[in-house]
Amino acid sequence: MGKGGMSQGEKEDGEEVNMAAWLMGVNTLKIQPLELPSLGPYDVLVRMKAVGVCGSDVHFLKTLRLADFVVKEPMVIGHECAGVIEKVGSEVKTLVPGDRVALEPGISCWQCDYCKGGRYNLCPESKGLGSPPVHGCLANQVVHPADLCFKLPDNVSLEEGAMCEPLSVGVHACRRANIGPETNVLIMGSGPIGLVTMLAARAFGAPRIVIVDVDDYRLSVAKKLGADNIVKVSTNLQDIAEEVEKIQKAMGTGIDVSFDCAGFNKTMSTALSATRAGGKVCLVGMGHREMTVPLTPAAAREVDVVGVFRYKNTWPLCLEFLRSGKIDVKPLITHRFGFSQKEVEEAFETSARGGTAIKVMFNL
Q1: Where would a tag sit more exposed on the chain, N or C end, judged by fewer CB atoms within 10 A?
Q2: Which domain of life is it from (predicted)?
């Protein structure tokens, strides 16, 4: 209790204080108030109920940067989220208080050529929850555009709604690679993004999926979730040629599309070498900002390299996959935490350690 018998998160006049998890510096998170912007006519006020911890959140906590995104001042973290509508703006017609929604975190300008052409994920003015310098969603409440809030089907939980964000990465990657019933898929990396990409590829009809990792536990999870075969590899670049043979043998046929869900020199080099002539390699992970990879031999075999950045127009399909049972993300949620200073710190430590943690989820 605070002074005068007040609970944490309550002002002297009884009005609620919006508490949020602020990234204050390297390895430093602090729960403190976040003042909300005013509710615009096309906005909604959402009470957060489920927020996932992403690898990018951990990167920001550990290094204050990810690729070209740099944390220069304290900010609220988090972007995988779902919650319940509490207020709606005067012009919002599609949502009402009490609706359960999943939030798409990126807010684009809707005026540039990319937005007008439908590729709003490439908008240079895009502002994403939890992407510096924009505050994220690990808070009691957030204000967000109504058109980026998607109603959850009755049989889809709030935690599953929060999982739409990482699942969207896999869905967008599968669309970029034109995955279908005749596409045999290799996935480099069985972390959360590798696993959701595998689930998405199967939902898109991929008949055979092989997944590769250095970790036995994560490979066992991939196998339980439906991988046709798994291959354990090393971190040694000298092992690539031998491991490519093992991977191709595990597939048993040509590899049409490879997804590099790690983004390291070795994983990308392996994907380029293992993919059949005329196939595709999709770079999904962002482990290394720069890589040295065998592009010339891949080009001589006409292996296309496809970039993947975030997602576009994926939430409706993700929710349909979840509603229909075509994709089940519940087994990916391995650890749950409440929203206290101690639990926030423990949650990020758990996610950073890896081990048996796949997806760490906050229940607010």
Answers
A1: N
A2: Eukaryota
